[in-house]
Amino acid sequence: MDAETLASLLDHSQAKIVVIDEAGTYQYANDAVSRLLGYDPDAFVGLNTFECMHPDDRPEMEARFESLRSAPEGASETVEYRHRSADGGWVWLETRLSNRKLPDFDGYVASSHDISERKRAERQRNELRTRLEELTANTNDVLWTVSADWDEMLFVNDAYEDIWGQPTAEVRENPERFLDGIRPKDRSKARDGMERLAGGESVEMEYWVDPSVSFRRRVWVRAEPIFEDGDVVRIVGTARDVTDRYRRQRQLRVLDDLLRHNIRNTMNIVLGHAELIQRGAHPDAPSGMGTVIDSATDLLNTAEKGREVVEVLSGANETVTVDIADCVSTAVENARERYPEVPIKLRQPSTAVAEAIPKINQAVAELLENAIQHADGAAEVTAVVECQGERITINIIDNGPPIPENEIRPLFTEADLSAINHGTGLGLWLVYWVADLSDGELTFGRRADGEGNVVTLSLPQAER
């Protein structure tokens, strides 16, 4: 095909096709330059492409052209820049340039498309995002807008990073990355919500997020589909950290349930024995009175434990720097004074500084007392403090029987306590809440020899 025939074919292309020499001078231009830039093709030939570029774009384009010229033959590159139009304005072009020369034209072929509308839309979207970021900078809620197919995150504010524990840039690059920040057992529920939103339904749900704190942050999510001409075009939503609210509601449910349960059971015993004694029908009145007194004492102890729990929950719950070595040492000395007959061993470093709420000392004292009081026969207790990476662990080791499952399971279930076989004591709940409010973890196990329990309270190590 001769040059004239090829030029005639190129004139029918919708793309602007030009040939430039090594200096960047236009050697050929098809008829599309008239439609895209307003130039007569003949007048366009002889102009220098770099002199027609926006001053802000020219240095980078010259460098990239030079790099392409020196690359192995056959290399190509796609670039975006602003080109001056015949009326003095600027047109955004996307140009694909190859370094393979065409002998008939003695230059490099470049094909360009007008992307001004796309750039205008991007600019408007960026301006909207900037305004939204300014408006949402002072909110703690996550606000977001995503495309209907969950392919593009149109907007998300910086609160996402604080609540989800993930860089905002990750979810902007791939909206579905937010699923990685959701507790694994909740992800199917979140995916179901995504499908319902894409299908045009509104969604409201709660789940746990933030792997950096072992998914102990609870969020309430509400999202709505946005319609245009009957089709879902995008989805808007908000997510709020409701961890404190959830904790408070659960704490109130536990206190109400356990106190009612304990008081009702104990009062049934008191009233039953008192009624028999009153009627003179008790087979052993002195023993019955002893039971009444013991039960009344249990009620007083329950009330005292309830007061301690209320103090923990209503007190200052901001974490502070605590030397756990000092804390455990004091708790052990107090336990030794109270139970002089019980051998209590202590192994720990000279210092072990953690972040915890001020009531951490009550939790340690509670674990020691539980280990002593629930032993079969003579109790033997060992307290071990260890620094393990970024955590400080407190291990209370005893020689007692296994802790009943119905005392442990309610601590870690989200089920309604009234619907499960719960324990009767507030002591472990006190320890659990101290751990939870300290961003710590409470775990239960048995000794390797099976002859006792190991209760571990793990806390974040303080920053040095």
TrEMBL record:
Stored InterPro entries: HATPase_C_sf, HATPase_dom, His_kinase_dom, PAC, PAS, PAS-assoc_C, PAS-like_dom_sf, PAS_fold_3
The enzyme's E.C. designation: 2.7.13.3
Histidine kinase domain location: 258-463
Known catalytic reactions: ATP + protein L-histidine = ADP + protein N-phospho-L-histidine
Annotated PAC domain residues: 77-127
PAS domain ranges (all copies): 2-75, 124-201
Keyword line: Kinase, Phosphoprotein, Transferase
Gene Ontology molecular-function annotations: protein histidine kinase activity
Pfam family membership, one: HATPase_c
Protein name: histidine kinase
